[in-house]
Amino acid sequence: MEIVYMQIAMVLSLIVKCLHGSLSTTLQETNSQQQPADPEPEFEGTIQNVTFPAGREAVLTCSVKNLGRYKVGWLRASDQTVLALQGRVVTHNARISVVHEDMRTWRLRIRQLRESDRGCYMCQINASPMKKQIGCIDVQVPPDIINEESSADIAVQEGEDATIVCKAVGHPTPRVTWKREDGECMLLRKPQSRELIKVEAYNGTHLHLPKLERRQMGAYLCIASNDVPPAVSKRVSLSVHFAPSVRPTSQLLGAPLGSDVQLECSVEASPMPVSYWLKGGRVLPSNFAGITNGNYEAGQARPEMLLDGPKYGITEERHGFRTNMRLLVRFFSPNDVGTYHCVSTNSLGRADGTMRLYEIKIHPGGVQTNDDQLNIIGGLAEAARGRGNSSANSLVTSSKPLHLILLSVLTALVYCMR
């Protein structure tokens, strides 16, 4: 009997233990339902990408809520380099700092931006799994012309091709524009054509100039810009070389004794020529030098070189590759009658122009002049052509009949043709 009571006691003990365990579990579950777990951290919004010029300061902003026991770090996205953890900077870059505001906002600041700072940066929360956001910085760099890869001043002969180059770097990629320094329109040849057209500017790093003409000579500006100030420019001088050409403004001039007479020639040449005046003789082209006495016709007196002084006034006026040569013969006398030559020479050749100066007879009561100087070109008064040259005076006819004036001109022509 005693054994039976002992077995009943053991069963009751087991039942009590089971009931106690179930109650404890129920209480624990109830407590756990009454104490919810901490919320997971989350990002508020996104990180805005920013663009700044080099040398300025860039700021990336990362906003986090429910951070709790977790931490925020900043990394460079390209190589996962850790820049900062919480409010402490761990990189050795003194230009980088982190600002922590109101327990929700984390700002990454990079001062004195360099081109190497361009790229994307990661704001990271060390949750499980890890959470991240990425923002990018674009660093703008003003243009800079690479002199080593750009053209220097060049010189080519007329009719040849030339290409001038201008290379520039910067971010964004610079635009390269060509213009003339003097503000005039550029002359560019149409493709597959001989025609030159006027354009204000040309866009491109390579300016190709086929079959150059002298009119295209000048200084060109290469201007590089990318909307990041300042724009930069480079000057390239283009010289087109050719042999001289000479054109007298008149071939026959007449003047009364005692007046001042001005002779003039227009010269085009490049490089800059050496120009001078000769009197008398006959000057031959330079290719005849081998069969004659120098450049002067055999059997004639050697021309006299004229120098600036009391008798002759010699001046030159240059405009690019054009030159105006002027010779002033003071107090015209019978010894000044004859042939005059304006000569111009450079490394590519030589040219000259010839003018004949004769005396016009002035009879009392006949043809008069208002000034000291009278020019008759091609047998006609220069004033009658409306040139308005200060060195030429109009003819004023008085009582002398017109046929006598024409007879004087014809007489002078016959004299000069001897």
From TrEMBL:
Tell me where in this chain the Ig-like domain is found.
Answer: 41-135, 143-239, 244-358
Which cell locations does it reside in?
Cell membrane
Could you say which residues form the signal peptide? 1-24
Q: Which Gene3D superfamilies match?
A: Immunoglobulins
Q: What top-level branch of life does the organism fall under?
A: Eukaryota
InterPro entries attached to this UniProt entry: Ig-like_dom, Ig-like_dom_sf, Ig-like_fold, Ig_I-set, Ig_sub, Ig_sub2, Immunoglobulin_dom, Neural/epithelial_adhesion
Could you list this entry's UniProt keywords, alphabetically sorted. Cell membrane, Disulfide bond, Glycoprotein, Immunoglobulin domain, Membrane, Repeat, Signal
- Its principal location? membrane
Q: Which GO cellular component does the record give, naming just one?
A: plasma membrane
Question: What protein name applies here?
Answer: Ig-like domain-containing protein
Q: Which species does this protein come from?
A: Aedes aegypti
